[in-house]
Amino acid sequence: MMRSRASLLAETLLLCGGCLALMFWIIPAQTSEGGFGLSPAFLPTMLSAAILLLVLGDGALRLAAGRAESAYPAGFGALARLLAVAGFGALVLGYAGIAASAAVTPAAGMLALGERRPLPMLATSALLGGAFWLVFR
Fold it and tell me: What contacts 24+ positions apart, CB below 8 Å, involve 49-57?
């Protein structure tokens, strides 16, 4: 089953709306003004803006390309895979810690979604595992 252009547009608009809600409503409501230096909301707002730009760029490229894209997995099989990945991540978090969980859970999710190329999975694992190890050591 293939996705329609309306599905791609709806996905892009939904993600953009989420980013805008983060930037103008959620982040300001959850942070206070700092007394010295940058505001505590600066980094989350900048990251939300970067995600917004990436979503807009990806959506525009996919809509302009006009290629047929396969539909996302649906049904109870997709739900079972999602729950299995979440449970696996929780087990790794409980037994090996947050850095190990950040390293292996996204790779397990990528496998569950159908990714079979080793380089993107290894790069994601190394980047997230390393970043979480540096932050939470």
Answer: 49/19, 49/23, 51/19, 52/16, 52/19, 52/20, 52/23, 55/12, 55/15, 55/16, 55/19, 56/12, 56/16
State the Cα–Cα distance between residues 106 and 112, nearest whole angstrom: 10
pLDDT tens string 74-98? 788 888 999 999 999 999 999 999 9
Helix 42-65 × helix 5-21 angle, to 10°: 170
Spatial distance between the Cα atoms of 134 and 127, rounded to a whole number of angstroms: 11
Please tell me whether residue 92 adopts helix, strand or coil conformation.
helix
CA distance 55 to 8: 11
C-alpha of 83 from chain center: 17
In this prediction, residue 1 has a pLDDT band, given cuts at 50, 70 and 90, of low
Backbone angles phi, psi at 132, to 5 degrees: -70, -35
pTM for the complete prediction? 0.62
Q: What is the pLDDT of residues 14-35, one digit of tens each?
A: 999 999 999 999 999 998 877 6
